[in-house]
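Quick start: load a record and inspect it. Here is Nucleoside phosphorylase domain-containing protein:
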Amino acid sequence: MPLNGADAAIGKDPAENGNHASHQPNGKVYDVNYEEESHNDINAVRYPDGSVRLRNPNIELMDQDILYHLALGSGSHDLVEMFGDVKFVCLGGTPKRMEQFAYNIMAEIGYKLPCGTTLQDISHFSYRYSMYKVGPVLSISHGMGIPSVGILLHEVIKLMYHAKVQDPVFFRIGTCGGIGNEGGTVVISEEVVDGALRNVLELTVLGKTLQRPAKLDRRLARELKALADPEDPYDTVTGKTMCTYDFYEGQGRLDGAFCDFTEADKMEYLEKIHKSGVMNIEMESLAFAALTHHAGIKAAVICVTILDRLKSDQVLAPREVLDEWQQRPTKLVSKYIKRYLQMKGRLSLDGHGSIAVKSPRRFKLVQQESETYD
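Running the structure step on this input writes:
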């Protein structure tokens, strides 16, 4: 699909990153990169206008699709009216951090709320994730760990489909442990690997092991790196990110409730992954990269280190220092978004996109379902 204007400036059509599954003799299921297949397979992840096509034919057959963990539904809400203008989806760990990001991006792009209104948490009734909309930007908390971000991404990708969003760009903004990088260093992920240095998300589906490639858009990573200010009093680097399923044993920490290895064992492992190019460790990027790649969505991971794991297991920086460090990835993403909107002539936006109820009865039912769904 040809691109024009600012879309071309931020990289190729994300649909070119699609993939699908094939079965191998060993019984495992592997995803295959669409670049190895016919270009026509792009149709599996994009409609002709660039809007997201789901890789699930069941959704089209449903009377309504309830996004339980977002307190939204295709039958209860006018999702096109509410979210059809979205271009950027920014995910981060905590509701408070993403609320602050929403206010920051509002000031950065000159977005103005309608008179007498305030920024609202669209997913308040879910009690699980928080979602704020600032013009073409969604700011959403994803919780902690692969399961939490995986659940969220399934529903956010479906939201993009129902809202007919065209060529969205996803960012994960967060904190991490550095490997050979001092606290406060911004790391832009070029590649994501698991604890065994494999760049796949391994899932068990219907009793079969599926390995889904965890790939990020490298061009997007380069563009973010180019926006880093050389005058910043901290480094902005690119490299591999390791994603683990656990904060303690999975990351080689000695201070968990359980530990069956020594300090020497830990250091040997950390030095090994450091030599392989791993710059940082966190707990969400593997699922984030795998699911966005499978959906054909351009995505990037930008984190700030809060310690160097080659020196310590525990975070010792004062709270005010950590608060400033956490602003560094958001500043870079905000700069990218502002640059894009400037090129499109879309700064100084009027406020719109508030809750649009299509069916009051279904709206109430969705709230009740979201409140009680486990």
